[in-house]
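Internal ticket #5521
Category: modeling
Description: The requester needs a full-assembly model to guide mutagenesis choices. All entity lines are attached below as received. Residue total reported by intake: 602.
Assigned to: D.W.
Attached entities:
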Amino acid sequence: MDELEIINRIETSLSRSPLVTLGPADDCAILPSHPAIGLVTTDCLMDGTHFIVSQITARQLANKVLCVNISDILAMGGVPEYLTLSLAIPKSLNPSFVEEFLESFLSLTNTYSIAVAGGDTNFWDGPLVVSINLTGRPIKGQPIRRSGACMNDHIFVTGALGGSLAGHHLDFSPPMELVHELVRQFPITSMIDISDGLATDLRHILKQSKVGAFLIKDALPARDTIQNLSKPEQIKRILSDGEDFEICFTVNSSIAETLLKKYPQLIRIGFITDEDEVIRWSDDKSIVDERGYEHKRKSND
Amino acid sequence: MDELEIINRIETSLSRSPLVTLGPADDCAILPSHPAIGLVTTDCLMDGTHFIVSQITARQLANKVLCVNISDILAMGGVPEYLTLSLAIPKSLNPSFVEEFLESFLSLTNTYSIAVAGGDTNFWDGPLVVSINLTGRPIKGQPIRRSGACMNDHIFVTGALGGSLAGHHLDFSPPMELVHELVRQFPITSMIDISDGLATDLRHILKQSKVGAFLIKDALPARDTIQNLSKPEQIKRILSDGEDFEICFTVNSSIAETLLKKYPQLIRIGFITDEDEVIRWSDDKSIVDERGYEHKRKSND
């Protein structure tokens, strides 16, 4: 694939989507009418910062850049809808990498029913940069915020945590179907995706909701890749590793048992207290002071 | 400004906008309901490719990245509304450049009444990359496409062309007020912004509309910076220089005089023929074979 073939490949994929009224034939893409409130998120992945191009497959890069954005839409109870893709491609990059990236990316957008509305493809002498802007709509009309957690709510996560850097962070799939089912059926009071580590992301909920939390040490679910570590080390990794891309949410205690019965794969890890932004262990009441990735660089993360 | 201050500055600006229901406090920005059809465009400017950071002021860079995107929305008869801004900032870049860029950028978004809905700010060892995703709505409900030009329509441009690289391409303002007035009052049949040179951009209209054009040589408006050149050289530059960011549009001949009387700053440069995609000079009927920037790299340009 030469540069023009790459661009043509992208344009062809754009014009195929039935969700886009007009693709690459004009100054802008045209999207059909949207009566719902809109969600929008953007994420930019850069070689040497967020990935090492020689240590990642094209498919993994496509999966990661798409799924970190889907995870943000999902974390607000949203259905992803439209994206634009901006690429800064090193002139020296193997064209087969670009080709495989595009094929994987377009295949994944099909899997998630996301329409590629537009793009901007550039070639340069710098490192690879892949930037996505993804819009979505709240599946229940109103998005689920971080700010709705209430005293005594129970706290759940959708899957195992920690040790993601062993591979999960490249090959993960956001738990979209599960979260959409949950949002449709249950009054979820707050929700966030776990990207910076459970400790840091739960604190975002606590801060926005002006509440605290007890965590149940024995309930914290460790990913396979850290099962060989000591229990205290596992706990530390679960709280601070990040890049899990599971969803953490809260519901009123009265529906917690119904939820668990219907979705036994959910893990109840604690409950909400009234102690402003403080996390304690439920057994000995000591303060949890672990933190994840705190240097916040995204304006929406 | 250190990295965290830069991020805080962006977040503060986000949360201020009354057009965004929710800014940086959650996984996505929340935008209010939109009954209208949506327009979306994206543009990525890279140091060394689209600008040289040592040869551009921070204000010029802010103006360019914003206005090339506004120009695309305007070219479809749209009002720009929401944007996300992705930055890859070299760690070595003078913080005062970043600070001035942000101040200029936010001031310009205010000027154009555009809400900054989200962003992703990163620091790395690579060159500066600035990427914007801009949405808009068609001011008349339906966007103005490239495909509506009809036989005998008159062709207009909103301002002088050619020689933009002498400075205009960095400091231009899209003719937003004028174009919005025109779109509101007159049935414009096709429209495009002139970014790749009049010859190339007019050909986009001809191709999409399946028509041809006569151009009036003496009517082509030369920018001040090329007035010192010979007439043939001026014509060549007008047709092929690009980066003009004026608007080219067509209307039915019956309203052309009314249009010119009300807006004497408009320039009528020719009219539409039925000769598929062929441009000829109106005086000697010879074929215009000049072309502008043809290697199309944007999926919406």
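Resolution: model delivered.
Comment from assignee: The CA atoms of residues 12 and 24 of chain A lie 8 Å apart.
Ticket closed.
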